[in-house]
Amino acid sequence: MKRKPRIYVIKVNRRKLLISTIIIVLIGMTAILKKQRIIHIFNPKNQQTIVIDPGHGGIDGGTGDRNDILEKDINLDVGLKLKKELLVEGFDVIMTREDDVSLENLSSINASRYRRDLDARKNIINENDPLAFISIHVNSSKKTSVKGIKVYHFLNSVEGEKLAKSIAESVDIYVYDKFLKDTSLKAEILSENFYILRETKHTGVLVEVGFITNPEENKLMKNRKYKEKVAFAIKKGILEYLSQD
Predict the structure, then answer these.
(1) 56 in Cβ contact with 103 (< 8 Å)
(2) pLDDT band at 42 (very low <50, low <70, confident <90, very high)
(3) Where are the domains positioned within the chain?
(4) Average pLDDT, rounded, for the chain
(5) Distance between CA atoms of 38 and 86, rounded to whole angstroms?
(6) Under DSSP, is residue 158 helix (H, G, I), strand (E, B) or coil?
(7) Residue 125: what pLDDT?
């Protein structure tokens, strides 16, 4: 005797089905949007490059006292802090050096060690086609009373001057006004014929983050928070400059 095939009837709550369908669609759309956002952020074609050039390094200590602090170390410390700040903003950051090294071995020109080091830095900047570059240095003076952050741009460089002004204004706000609480201090904007500004093909500035010969600023350059604020201010200045275009 053959059994009749059984027919099962599944009752579906239309409201619950509709809600479940909507949830599944929303989850799918969220996953797609997240994937697109990740692709947008990490696609090399969308990356915008900034080059950071911590001056000196290796056998070239720059200004300072080996029994105290040396310029090369301050330059690198501020440079690495600036790199972190810029990475957070989504930039592709290239550094001419990330360790205590000089760069003369990267140059093939027949010149002094000092000139070969500068040539290597120039090549790194030019070959990476950056939106801008920042060369970081420390100042010194025979007069211990001289102090202050100075931002240099190349002579007659319109874009360089714009970038220098943006960074100087940012330093005034975030370093002098908000951090040091001293509204009498102002970052100085200067034009100069420095090699790194003259021989590069891209907009850039050289920032002297203080005077190592000034007792107050010498102490500040040993202060982690101060160097973080300087790096933050430089980043904000770069962002302001780029927003003008």
Answers:
(1) no
(2) very low
(3) 12-46, 47-243
(4) 88
(5) 18
(6) helix
(7) 98
Contact (CB, 8 A) for 70 and 220: no
User: How many whole angstroms separate alpha carbon 78 and alpha carbon 73?
Assistant: 9
Residue whose C-alpha is closest to residue 97's, from 157, 56, 50 = 56
3-class DSSP assignment, residue 95? strand
Mean pLDDT over residues 177-190, rounded? 96
Sheet holding 204-211, edge to edge: 92-95, 49-54, 132-139, 204-211, 150-154, 188-192
In contact, 137 and 75? CB cutoff 8 Å: yes
Residue 24 to residue 12: CA distance in whole angstroms: 17
CA separation, residue 56 to residues 40, 60, 67, 220 (Å): 36, 5, 18, 20
| Distance from chain centroid for Cα 155 | 23
Full-model pTM = 0.81
Tokens of 112: 């002094």
Tokens of 88: 């957070």
pLDDT in tens, 56-71: 999 999 999 999 999 9
Q: Please give the pLDDT value at position 40.
A: 35
CATH annotation of 47-243: 3.40.630.40
Cβ contacts of residue 17 below 8 Å, gap of 6+?
Answer: none
Burial 19-51 (b: 16+ CB within 10 A, else e): eeeeeeeeeeeeeeeeeeeeeeeeeeeeeebbb
Q: What is the pLDDT of residue 128?
A: 97
pLDDT, tens digit, 9 for 90 and up, residues 12-30: 556 655 666 666 655 555 4
